[in-house]
Amino acid sequence: MLRRKMLDKLISWKTKSQGREALLIEGARRVGKSTIVEEFGRTQYRSYILVDFARLPRDIRDVFDNQRDDLDTFFLMLSAYYRTKLVRRESLIIFDEVQQYPQAREMIKYLVADGRYDYVETGSLISIKKNVADIVIPSEERKLDMGPLDFEEFCWAMSEELLADAIRGAFESLTALPDALHKRAARLWREYLLVGGMPQAVVSYVEHRDFGDVDDIKRGILQLYSDDIGKFAGGDAARVRGIFAQVPGQLSKHEKRFMLSSIDVAARMREYDAAFFWLEDARLVNICRNATDPTVGLGLYADSRSFKCYLADTGLLVSQIFADRETTTDDVYRDILFGKLAINEGMFTENAVAQQLRANGRALYFFSRNNREDATRTMEIDFLIVRDYDNAALKPRISPIEVKSTKRYGVSSLDKFRNLYGSKRLGKEYVLHPRQLEVEGERVRLPLYMAHCL
């Protein structure tokens, strides 16, 4: 069983909510939602029932259809069918893949008001039109996102808990790790780039250390996603597939903003809005929007026409890059791991940093400005985040982040950004690079394996 941070969030929710709300866990398919909620039910309750709406038996569908107004009978029949005794305030009922039966989601209002048990829902594509049509979204429902494993969870899976603790401690104290630990952490980070964070792929790598086997698993997940697009994207399926196929090509460019002209020279954003919404709602991509005015309320100044599109899992991105061949062997992966194969690592690295920031619950923003008349005002910052600033009584400030995949690099955009916006808006600035941790005034150079700490 993989150790996941989501379990701690579930336990915290149970303690705080005391049955006053249900919890909805959203995420892409195969990120481990069902596994973690079952673990939660098994370890934190006297009993639990999991209702899988993806494979809902007719008898249980009849219970939901016919007994929803008689909760005593509803619970009695549910308990009998699943051969599980429900204990007041000590049992959990899980609605798995609830998007397949939206009426069950609508029942949450009445089930929470009844107060007998706790409720956790899991699902993907929760917000698309067909899954919210004709139902009242319950206000008693709190949402949490669940994604692939972040780098810290990957370390746990690789039995490197102590190293993970050392990494976080070094970040908090801004002290470089001893060289031997730095090299070990850097090697793990490179393995993480190739394996990614999909649980099935991670388990396979932990057990067999064979990148070829991992690649087969990732290709199977990509095929599953392709099938889902065909089933659920409706009239936007062709556009969704076009966007998804273009993500690696867009990220391989120096200018990583997504250009619709790569799909169709006549494409217009209004024609593709629904397709991007579908991909983002399915949690298959992470959209990073251009914040045109870097202030603490980044979302207020997001330009919806200017954005970058990352794959939600970097391991899947690697497999997608090699989609032109039927399989990618362990030898090819190991050549990448040891730097023997010329490949654009910048796209993997930036995608992985985006993945870490999203895992921390951060919306993604970048900053880009082009001024043909004044080069000092032309700059691009990979990511902007808001962090408490220790030199301003812990008030929130904008922290710019630059991501570097090589040991030699420039930081002219950071210099311009600091000169333009100064200390009143900005806190610490971060450079994520393959080298050791260094502090230069307000600029902190962090090894890439510390990205999850931001």
Strand content: 15-25%
- Cα-atom radius of gyration: 23 Å
Terminal CA distance: 26 Å
Low-confidence stretches: none
Number of strands: 14
Let me know the average pLDDT. Answer: 93
Overall number of domains: 2
Helix vs. strand class: alpha/beta
Helix content: 40-55%
Strand order of the largest sheet: 2-3-4-1-5
The backbone outline, from C-alpha atoms, is: globular
Count the helices. How many? 17
Largest sheet features? 5 strands, parallel
Describe the structure.
The protein has 454 residues and is of the alpha/beta class. The protein has 2 domains: 5-145, Rossmann fold, CATH 3.40.50; 152-453, no CATH class. The chain is 45% helix and 18% strand. It has helices at 5-17, 33-44, 58-66, 71-81, 102-114, 129-132, 151-157, 161-173, 179-195, 199-208, 211-232, 237-251, 269-281, 314-321, 330-337, 345-359, 412-425, and strands at residues 22-26, 47-52, 91-96, 118-123, 141-145, 285-291, 302-311, 364-369, 379-381, 383-389, 395-403, 429-433, 438-440, 443-447. A 5-stranded parallel beta sheet has the order 2-3-4-1-5, with helices on both faces. The longest helix has 22 residues, at 211-232. The protein is globular and about 70 Å long. The two termini are 26 Å apart. Pfam families: AAA_14, DUF4143. Residues 227-405 form the DUF4143 domain. Residues 20-155 form the AAA domain. InterPro entries: AAA_14 (IPR041682), DUF4143 (IPR025420), P-loop_NTPase (IPR027417). This is ATPase.
